[in-house]
Amino acid sequence: MPQLLNLSRAARLVGETRVALQKKIKDGALSSFDGLVAAEDLLRLYPDIQFEDNTAFERVAQIKDRAFGKRVFERSLPDKEVLAARLTGLGKELAESRATLKRYKAIVDGLEKQIKVWDNGGAEIGAAAAALRMWMHQELAAGDAQAGSANLTIRDSFLRVMAAHVTIQPSGHEFFVEGADTLLEAALRGGLALNYGCSNGNCGQCKARVVSGQIMKVRPHDYVISEAEKAAGYALMCSNTAVTDVVIEAGEAQLASDIPLQHITAHVKSIEPMGDQMLLLHLQTPRNNRLRFLAGQNVMLQLGHSISAEFPVASCPCDDRNLQFHIRNTPGNHFADYVATQLKSGEMVAVEGPKGGFVLNEDSSRPLIFIAFGASFAPVKSLIEHAMALDTAESMQLYWVVSHEANLYFSNWLRAMADALDNFQYTPLVAGSDLETAAGRQKYLIDGLLQQIVDQHPALSDFDVYVAGSESLLDAAKKWLLAHGLPDTQLTMGMVR
Ligand code: FES
């Protein structure tokens, strides 16, 4: 019977992304049975995998670490009790396998003896015995030659000790639980919008049913789960981690309207300049009162009593404690002026949100095109990080359009991502003229940029397109994209003032 692996595990084993394997299945290069792939097929497709070499996987992991901030992807060993439970499970499997092997060896030895007896049973029986012996030795030798398959099993066992795989019902979404993460933390890192509230064991909103597999409580909680609920398999995702691969039945936000409006007070972690005009404002929420939002959404920030403004969150919901904002420091912008000159680390900022529907269509597997105008890059960055965490988009192409080169304040990050990830391309475009004027829009936006996109992607209807910018730029872009074959339902626009 072939050894079957789910796609997420298979991708980890060969150091690929899930989406790259999905493409190979789509192209017919790799067979799949009910979403599973055979270890033998995987080895045929990747004959040169070095099982001790994690370079490819680590390279992508490192670039993601750098991109999302080390605090998000701090890799550490699982909790020691979880590690002990996983090793005990593995030890049990090993003991059972040994016992089975011993049994088979005894059967093979017995068969050898029996064949020897048949050797003396006349010409016909002797020939049949010789043929049987030869077949048996060939099969045993073939088993010895499958070293690659054995290595795959060893590596798979190692990965199982380090990370447990989780499947959510009914959506079928999947994620891995690594390090000392709870199920909720791991799901958020995997880009999933599981239902939750306090993240701290108080509200019960993250309650979910464990359908199969073993979980373990790693954080205390005050919320009381009744005995009947416990018996039915219910547990808090913010207090438990996965010991083995598990299947859970849990609610997930599908739409922006599924996330409630929240009022949170966060403190200023840092304020840093980015280029000449931009400020990076980093807020951190309390551990037990985080902001639940979808990538691409906005929040209202209030400084003191009288200064407030709405901004897109530039960071990813996979790190719901650390919220980043890109603030344009232009003359006459009171909010930016206050942030630049008066706001200090440790001070409190009121956050109200999330708001807005500039979010990813997660039901679609079409390749993605992002077009960001100027400082509207912030929500697009959040969408890109989220799409990377989900690992479902076949490809992502970002066009970042600015008036002047100095405004490409995040280019190094984007170039590093494009170098590290095969499915992400970045094209910076410098207009050299003011895109907010009608003449500038016509000259550069319509005649230059949009034509360039269509030249590169003639079948626009194959893509989902996300555009963020000012109202006038969005209007111009929308008219042109729809006139060139992009269906209305595949265009999502986010207005940033
Ligand atoms: S999120 Fe509140 S108890 Fe888990």
Could you explain how this protein is built, in words?
The protein has five domains: 4-59, no CATH class; 80-159; 160-249, Ubiquitin-like (UB roll) (Roll); 259-355, Translation factors (Elongation Factor Tu (Ef-tu), domain 3, Beta Barrel), CATH 2.40.30.10; 368-495, Rossmann fold, CATH 3.40.50.80. It has 14 helices and 20 strands. The chain has helices at 7-14, 18-26, 39-45, 55-68, 80-119, 123-145, 147-162, 183-189, 227-231, 334-341, 377-390, 411-420, 438-456, 471-483, and strands at residues 4-6, 36-38, 163-169, 174-178, 207-212, 215-217, 234-236, 240-242, 246-249, 262-274, 278-284, 298-303, 307-312, 322-328, 348-355, 368-373, 396-402, 424-430, 464-469, 491-495. The protein starts with a strand and ends with a strand. Mean pLDDT is 86; it is low at 51-57 and 67-74. The structure holds FE2/S2 (inorganic) cluster.
Q: Which features does this protein show?
A:
six-stranded antiparallel beta sheet; 5 domains; alpha/beta; 497 residues; binds FE2/S2 (inorganic) cluster; single chain; 14 helices; 39% helix; globular
Number of domains: 5
Number of strands: 20
CATH superfamily of the largest domain: Nucleotide-binding domain of ferredoxin-NADP reductase (FNR) module
CATH class of the largest domain: Alpha Beta
Given helix and strand content, the structural type is: alpha/beta
Largest sheet: 6 strands, antiparallel
List bound small molecules: FE2/S2 (inorganic) cluster
N-to-C CA distance:
60 Å
* Largest sheet, spatial ordering of strands: 13-12-15-10-11-14
Rounded average pLDDT: 86
> Share of helix among residues?
25-40%
- Backbone CA Rg: 28 Å
What is the overall number of helices? 14
Say what the CATH topology of the largest domain is. Rossmann fold
Could you list the spans in which at least 5 consecutive residues all have pLDDT below 50?
51-57, 67-74
